[in-house]
Amino acid sequence: MLNSGFIPCDGVDALVQSTGDKWKNSGVTTSVIIGRFSPFHAGHAAFFETVMAMGLDFHVILNANVNTANGKNPYNVGQKIEMIRLALPRIPEERLHPLKFYLGLGGVDVGADKDQLVAKIEEIAPHDKVVICYIRKEDDIKDFLVHGKILHGHYVDMLPFQKQILVPHAEYSELCATSVREGTAPDNALHPKVKIFLDWEKAKAELNGRRLGDDSREDTKFIARPDGLPLVQSKIRSYDFG
């Protein structure tokens, strides 16, 4: 397994392509990214670009959990898909796989959620053909209860697949979704179209007296889609994952 390689998350370069070639030569065909992307910011986009540059069949497991009450995961899966496709329109929707799972803390046994995540990845490609690509941060190293046993590490460690660690480019190393949600991130933290989209979504939610990620089917007040914001057609309905 090529589990120890650190490559820069900085767009297309020879090292990234060479890492992809090593995986291909070992028989791997598919790269998988897992995350909440709440919201999808410039660091995520750079990460996606890097993984795609490895030249493997690219897929994303998109955590469809939404928690509009505590503000930590306020966006529904439809909003997340639209953000990703506005920022990176060349990613087909069929490469984005929504799944509700919880790999958190608080003494909750996450074994069933882990198994569900493994099964979803194995739907995408055979077990030995997959590499999970991720950025390993110290903040993500925790204790997880998995089928009655404590696992100390990153949540990716509990998944029985080959893995590739990437290091974010310095420009994005301090960027996190929390700072974006709290409004303390740099102005360029969001793709311009993503920012317009989120401002529009927030305005619609406020106008109808609901939370940002809540089901909008009962909205009675509407705001026209902003000029210059492409219409992203999606087969996935947010309320299917409510």
Describe the structure.
The strands form 2 sheets. This protein has a 6-stranded parallel β-sheet with strand order 1-8-5-2-3-4, sandwiched between helices. It has a two-stranded antiparallel sheet with strand order 6-7. It has 242 residues and is an alpha/beta fold. The protein is 29% helix and 18% strand. Strand 3, helix 3 and strand 4 form a beta-alpha-beta unit.
Q: Low-confidence parts, pLDDT < 50 over ≥5 residues? A: 1-5
What's the rounded overall pLDDT mean? 88
Integer-rounded radius of gyration: 18 Å
Broad shape: globular
What fraction of the residues are assigned to beta strands by DSSP? 15-25%
The major sheet is characterized as:
6 strands, parallel
- The sequence of SSEs as H and E is EHEHEHEHEEEEHH
In percent, how helical is the residue content?
25-40%
Give the number of helices. 6
Give me the side-by-side strand order of the main sheet.
1-8-5-2-3-4
Distance between the termini: 38 Å
Report the strand count: 8
Helix/sheet category: alpha/beta
